[in-house]
């Protein structure tokens, strides 16, 4: 894991584990966070996303799970943190995984 005393530890690309990434993405709330991150970094102030509705403790847990799995990067900036998707790292380690997980095909009618 890389990091400084001010940064939270993040796994190196070579240390990303597929089952950890899949577990992190298996929760609907975490998957929603990742989908929001595809549009750009999320600003977190006092452990709460700007305009967010997730309880502080729940968001903290989800962000920790995503960070420890290597799905997101959590970077401090002053009193805030910026959460970004590690898309390039994930695509390099597991090509096509994010595209497959984030793709939501419409359900076909059963008949």
Our measurement of the CA-to-CA distance between the termini, rounded to an integer number of angstroms, reads: 50 Å
Q: Structural class of the secondary elements?
A: alpha+beta
Sheet with most strands: 4 strands, antiparallel
Radius of gyration: 15 Å
> What sequence of helices (H) and strands (E) makes up the elements?
HHEEHEEHH
Count of beta strands: 4
Binned strand content: 15-25%
Tally of helical runs: 5
Low-confidence stretches: none
Shape type: globular
Give the averaged pLDDT, no decimals: 83
Query: Can you give the helix content as a percent range?
Result: 40-55%
Strand order of the largest sheet: 2-1-4-3
Structure description:
It is a single chain. By secondary structure, this protein is α+β, with helices and mostly antiparallel strands. It is 41% helix and 16% strand. It contains five helices and four strands, in the order H-H-E-E-H-E-E-H-H. The chain has helices at 18-26, 28-37, 56-69, 87-93, 97-102; strands at residues 42-45, 48-49, 72-77, 80-85. The chain has a four-stranded antiparallel sheet with strand order 2-1-4-3. A hairpin with a 2-residue loop joins strand 1 (42-45) and strand 2 (48-49). Helix 1 packs antiparallel against helix 3. The radius of gyration is 15 Å and the shape is globular. The N and C termini lie far apart (50 Å). The model has no long low-confidence stretch (mean pLDDT 83).
Which key features would you list for this structure?
about 110 residues; 4-stranded antiparallel β-sheet; alpha+beta; globular
